[in-house]
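Example 3.2
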Amino acid sequence: MVKKISLAVISLFMASTLLSACGGGNNNNSASSADSSGNAGTASASTDTAASTDTSKTLSGKIKVLTHRTDLVNDGTMDKYAAKFKEKYPDAEIEFEGLTNYATDIKVRLTTGEAGDVNMIPSAMATSEMPKYYEALPDDMFDNVYFADYDAYEGKRYGIVTGVNTQGIVYNKQAFQKAGIDKTPATLDELYADAQKLKDAGIIPLYMNYGAQWPMGNWGENSYTYVAGDAKWTDTLISKDDPFQVDGPWGKLINIARTFVEKGWVEKDLSTNNWEMSKGEVASGKAAMYFLGNWVIPQVAAAGASSDDIGFFPLPYDNSGKYNAPLGGDYFIGVSKDSKNKELAIAWVNFFVKESGYDTDSGFMPIDKTKEPQVAQLAEFKASNPTFIEAVAVDPRFNEIANKAEIALGTGSVDQDLVTAKDLNKAFDDLNKKWAKARKELGY
């Protein structure tokens, strides 16, 4: 049974917190756009915008939407959203294209002018780059919306969030019970002990999805801000030549992941992209845990699990017993600068994030602050009393330096390399050398 979590509870989540990034990910792709390496923003957007979400006009024509949600394209869910949209705009046609390796492919599509009319904005794109590729969205689209200025640059907003996430351990209660685990771990040592119990019971303790690449970002740039306990921690790295340290927040997460790999507490086949298969493994209890966001819960249920058998708790990243957790956005969506039907594209974006039902279907909290979340597992998560860190915009210089240094943040590839590096200290040193060189060349 799905229970509603009251808006008051979510407000309490936020009232006592700093602001930070979310570690949400998504289907078949890289991590969410509201991560700590994600899109940078500037001052609040201006109210002087030419476009509008006024639906009194009769819009027509065809637009193409690029999405990372290949599952929803393949199972017809996206077509259902389009049919609902056509009830408002009978002369409108929506075509969907799902990209399996979205995080990488969308970057190429943007530079070649083949990014469709609407797409999910790459998480590592600096907002200073957005005017080159995206149309400014109307301000009336952002009333009561989380992270309204996250994708803002020079007074204009270029992206709107598609859902609100937190992040932690999604687990199969039946698998825990089979392994003799009667409560969720509250410390890192307890997490390790439970992982061994699961392995001893013939269960894959944690499906890391190393081969899919994008989930690996949760062991790094999607999470290190809340582990640091500072919403603006990412911005502090801009002034350093050696920002990435083994004993820092990123190193702490990577070392946890390395322990899981070294102890055999993850899937044996690390090289293959088994993302779709892994959902069935967790749903059936053959695998016990994911380190992902609340968005994956309905996907595991759709793969065959009873929703009542799926739980959710914060990652215990040390032995303190007190943890931070993120409150941030999933992918942000925008209208392509190259679109030939921008009015229809803007109308689709507004409908998709507010009326389609995509947020609930995907296990998100609504983007509208006045609406109540409907994901039951959030109550269990909140019972662990994490301190929620709400995502804020990142200084554009961070992604400019990372891009100049050719450090592919936002794709999970860097985290893959760190998790399997023979010498982690050397791997971080190599990153820092690239970072320092790029900072100097950019004059930062």
